[in-house]
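Notes from the 1:1 (GR / supervisor)

We went over the backlog. Supervisor wanted to see one worked example end to end before approving the batch request, so GR pasted a single chain during the call. The sequence is below; no edits were made to it. Supervisor asked that the structure be written out right there so they could see what the output format looks like.
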Amino acid sequence: MSVLKNGKSGESYNISASNEIDNLEVVYGILKILNKSEKLIKFVSSRPGEDTRYSLDSTKIRRELGWEPKISFDEGIKKTIEWYQENKEWGANTSDEVYNETPWENKSWDNNMKGIILHGGHGTRLRPLTHTGPKQLLPIANKPMSQFCLEAISETGITDIAIVIGGVGSNKVREYYGNGEKFGVKITYIEQDEPRGIAHAVRLCKEFVNDEKFLVFLGDNIIQKSIIDFVENFKNSDYDATVLLCEVDNPSRFGIADVENDNIIKITEKPKNPKSNLAVTGIYLLTPIIFEIIDKLKPSWRNELEITDALDNLLKQNNNISFERITDYWKDTGTPEDIIHANGEIIRKMLENSGANEDQMFGTDTVIESNVKIINPVIIGNNCHISSGSSIGPNVSVGDNTTISISSIENSIIMKNCKI
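Structure output shown during the call:
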């Protein structure tokens, strides 16, 4: 704070205890704190320019700003070692370069939860778009919809994620996400031979979960609210499960939770005469006890193992399920209309976050000629060309490498490499 309040612009200040110490002495000190043998030290040949001592002179900051260290160098080393011992997962992942491209300031390192994204299904309601690939890779705001799920999970600090894949084009999922490194996570792929229900897909992940609490996110669910608080609440609770609920206008399309006195009393899949409008969203916080419940499930009339049946049976067994409410935007993108709606909402939110600076919504090397009408919200990808006389928006996303000439487009998703 001394530097922020009183430091001079353009100046640099060393913050240290003003020690001068050999590197080897530091290593000896670390081994002593860890109660480890000096035999662990391995000597290698020096590299050109390599230093052999630690030294930082903090005279300037002491003299000009009156700063003094609160702890000694030895105390600082000890506290650093204690932190790494308490956050071993962080150190392990760093050695694998997992966090190289991930902002770490929002991570919650002290957690062992796993994440699961369900990326299967046939997407029949979205054909012909899903004839060649999974619906979860369809773009919303120029990004595969399942990437929003992955980023929401990663934001909570969960970095060990399984993606359940199956059906047409599942190899495209592997090609896009890879091992997860470019997204700052570690990805494991689990194959589902055919769609047998959400509960079946969850059951396939038992070995991956390995007795940890875990988060399940359906790859076609879009939300705008952060789930960090929901995850933290569940981590610190004794609940067997927490479901996220959201009010909907058409409850007969969803699994519905009946709630009385802030308690869930029943969960029903697509009820004909729903008693509430609280839909069970595709985001579930679970414990391994759910696997025992799924093992006893019988297929529904759709010949699938329903997650709503599993949750309702868990409720009957232990009555230990909590819920959180999503009061912001949530969409289960099962139809073309749902995807178009989600596209517009996400772009609108992105525009708000940019401070209504529409230039941030246009990609690099994109040319928008004069006399082009942009009606926000609109997002345009990289290397696009929009010719004079065109009108784009509202609620339009344009993929990379697309050319649009003398056209009027609204409420639409334009894929990559299109010519209109």
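Supervisor's comment: The longest helix spans residues 336-353.
Batch request approved.
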